[in-house]
C-alpha cells in the first residue's frame, strides 16, 4: 500500500514538472498550436502540440510533446494491453468465422431437411397410389373368383343333373 502511494506521488510530480504549465507554443506558421493526441507512438494517448492548420492546406511540421514522457513501466503496460487487445481481436475474428461456418452448416441442413421432406412426401404419395391399385386389384380378383365359382357350380350342376329339365 505504501508502495502504491509512492508511485502515485512520483507520477503526479513528474506530470506537474512537465511542459503542461509552460505557455502554449506557436507553430512555424506563427499561430498558436493546438493540443492533439497521438495514438501511434510507443505511448498511445500521449498528447502533443501540433499545427492548428492540420488537415487543411495551411499546415507545417511543428511538433512538440505536451505530456511528459511516461515511465518505462507505462510502455510495458501499454505493450501488454495492445498484445491482449490483438489476442481478443484475433479470437473475435475466429468466433465470427466459426459463427459463419455454423450458419452455413445450418443452412445446408435446412436445405437437406427440405429436400428429404419433399422426397418423403413423394414416396408417401407413390405408396398411397400403389395401395389404391392393390385394393382395386383385390376387388377385381374377388369378382373374378365369384364369377369362376358360379361358373363351376353351374357346370357341376349340369354334369350331375343333366336330365333334370326333361
Ligand atoms: Zn503551423
Automatic annotation (TrEMBL):
<keyword id="KW-0812">Transmembrane</keyword>
<feature type="domain" description="GRF-type">
    <location>
        <begin position="27"/>
        <end position="69"/>
    </location>
</feature>
<feature type="transmembrane region" description="Helical">
    <location>
        <begin position="144"/>
        <end position="161"/>
    </location>
</feature>
<keyword id="KW-1133">Transmembrane helix</keyword>
<dbReference type="GO" id="GO:0008270">
    <property type="term" value="F:zinc ion binding"/>
</dbReference>
<keyword id="KW-0862">Zinc</keyword>
<keyword id="KW-0472">Membrane</keyword>
<keyword id="KW-0863">Zinc-finger</keyword>
<feature type="region of interest" description="Disordered">
    <location>
        <begin position="1"/>
        <end position="22"/>
    </location>
</feature>
<dbReference type="Pfam" id="PF06839">
    <property type="entry name" value="Zn_ribbon_GRF"/>
</dbReference>
<keyword id="KW-0479">Metal-binding</keyword>
<keyword id="KW-0175">Coiled coil</keyword>
<dbReference type="InterPro" id="IPR010666">
    <property type="entry name" value="Znf_GRF"/>
</dbReference>
<protein>
    <recommendedName>
        <fullName>GRF-type domain-containing protein</fullName>
    </recommendedName>
</protein>
<feature type="coiled-coil region">
    <location>
        <begin position="78"/>
        <end position="126"/>
    </location>
</feature>
Amino acid at each position: 500500500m505504501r508502495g502504491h502511494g509512492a508511485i502515485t506521488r512520483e507520477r503526479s510530480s513528474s506530470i506537474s514538472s512537465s511542459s503542461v504549465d509552460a505557455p502554449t507554443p506557436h507553430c512555424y506558421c506563427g499561430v498558436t498550436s493546438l493540443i492533439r493526441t497521438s495514438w501511434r507512438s510507443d505511448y498511445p494517448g500521449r498528447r502533443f502540440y501540433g499545427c492548428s492548420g492540420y488537415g487543411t492546406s495551411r499546415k507545417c511540421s511543428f511538433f512538440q510533446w505536451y505530456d511528459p514522457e511516461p515511465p518505462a513501466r507505462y510502455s510495458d503496460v501499454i505493450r501488454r494491453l495492445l498484445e491482449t487487445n490483438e489476442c481478443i481481436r484475433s479470437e473475435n475474428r475466429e468466433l465470427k468465422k466459426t459463427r459463419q461456418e455454423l450458419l452455413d452448416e445450418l443452412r445446408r441442413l435446412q436445405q437437406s431437411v427440405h429436400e428429404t421432406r419433399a422426397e418423403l412426401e413423394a414416396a408417401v404419395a407413390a405408396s398411397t397410389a400403389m395401395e389404391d391399385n392393390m385394393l382395386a386389384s383385390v376387388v377385381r380378383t374377388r369378382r373374378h373368383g365369384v364369377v369362376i365359382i358360379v361358373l363351376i357350380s353351374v357346370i357341376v350342376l349340369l354334369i350331375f343333373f343333366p336330365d333334370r329339365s326333361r
